[in-house]
């Protein structure tokens, strides 16, 4: 396992993050004893980022992690989130406003058995709360020492850009990380979010690198019909055979290869699944292999990206093709 810097900070984070979404989930989740095996395996492999949220398993994920990390807390970059409702009958129990943040954070700290979290994520954009309120409230908990760094998940690029510009102007803690879905079947972030994150120097935590199991290499669903992404699955299996890896490892390796900013989140339910995912660290994809995988996705950037790329030779002249830019 190698390490990179988290956004524009000095915090060292491992190439692969561990997702604890299924820790303690009643249906289809990981029981506490399996959670321990997963965390131990990840720790032994050199991983140091564990990502959870106050809503995962109604808080059970945080509770289990609090128990598992209690005696090794400083070894891990512990990340959790807030936004999702804690009480559907209470309009103030959700959202990104100050009251929601304070109550959610205090409850998370108790469950995690710690007095601070390393990364606190806004779980989703809340269009009803001014960005100024959210960013100032986050800066307050950073200054109080309860949070070291902040990030945002599942938000439009213009929201993140405006938030970080506000933070820069007003001396507040900026978002150092962006958490978004990214895999061969969901490449939407390549349009705006990934270029924005790279421009701001943000770390991109990519959830769903296996598209919830659809990129694990299985060609058929329970009904015997081809699964979503049949062409991609075929390409994955072909490349996997060539490099001596599993389709899942190739899918994760592709996500990693897309940008140095990207850190896939491995959301394993079992230690065996995590072991397979960690094998992606040894997979090196050639340019040809990546091109074949991407060709199978039938993805286009769309306007304005495709239009700008197509028009650039005419707009900037023939000599622009010999310019070595940034």
From TrEMBL:
Domain spans labelled NADP-dependent oxidoreductase: 16-296
GO cellular component, one term: cytosol
Keyword Oxidoreductase: yes
Keyword Glycoprotein assigned: no
Molecular function (Gene Ontology), one example: oxidoreductase activity
Pfam families reported for this sequence: Aldo_ket_red (PF00248)
Protein keywords: Oxidoreductase
SUPFAM superfamilies in alphabetical order: NAD(P)-linked oxidoreductase
Name used for this protein in its record: Aryl-alcohol dehydrogenase-like predicted oxidoreductase
Organism this protein belongs to: Actinopolymorpha pittospori
């Amino acid at each position: 396992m190698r390490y990179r810097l988290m956004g524009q900070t000095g915090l060292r984070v491992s190439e692969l993050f561990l997702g604890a979404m299924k820790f303690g989930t009643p249906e289809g989740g990981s029981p506490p004893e399996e959670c321990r095996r997963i965390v131990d395996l990840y720790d032994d492999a050199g991983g140091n980022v564990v990502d959870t949220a106050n809503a995962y398993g109604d808080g059970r994920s945080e509770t289990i992690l609090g128990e598992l990390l209690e005696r090794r807390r400083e070894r891990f970059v512990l990340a959790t989130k807030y936004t999702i409702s804690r009480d559907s009958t209470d309009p103030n129990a959700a959202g990104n406003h100050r009251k929601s943040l304070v109550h959610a954070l205090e409850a998370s700290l108790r469950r995690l058995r710690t007095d601070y979290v390393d990364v606190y994520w806004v779980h989703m954009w809340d269009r009803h709360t001014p960005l100024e309120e959210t960013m100032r409230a986050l800066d307050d908990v950073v200054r109080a020492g309860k949070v070291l760094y902040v990030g945002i998940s599942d938000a439009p690029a213009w929201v993140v850009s405006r938030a970080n510009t506000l933070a820069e102007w007003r001396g507040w803690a900026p978002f150092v990380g962006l958490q978004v879905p990214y895999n061969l079947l969901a490449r939407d972030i390549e349009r705006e979010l990934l270029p924005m994150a790279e421009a701001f120097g943000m770390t991109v935590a990519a959830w769903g690198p296996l598209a919830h199991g659809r990129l694990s290499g299985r060609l058929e669903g329970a009904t015997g019909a081809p699964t979503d992404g049949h062409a991609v699955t075929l390409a994955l299996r072909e490349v996997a055979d060539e490099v001596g890896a599993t389709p899942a490892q190739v899918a994760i390796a592709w996500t990693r290869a897309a940008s140095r900013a990207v850190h896939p989140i491995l959301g394993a339910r079992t230690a065996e699944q995590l072991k397979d995912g960690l094998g992606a660290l040894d997979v090196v994809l050639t340019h040809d292999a990546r091109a074949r995988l991407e060709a199978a996705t039938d993805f286009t950037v769309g306007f304005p990206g495709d239009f700008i790329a197509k028009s650039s030779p005419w707009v900037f002249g023939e000599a622009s093709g010999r310019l070595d830019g940034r």
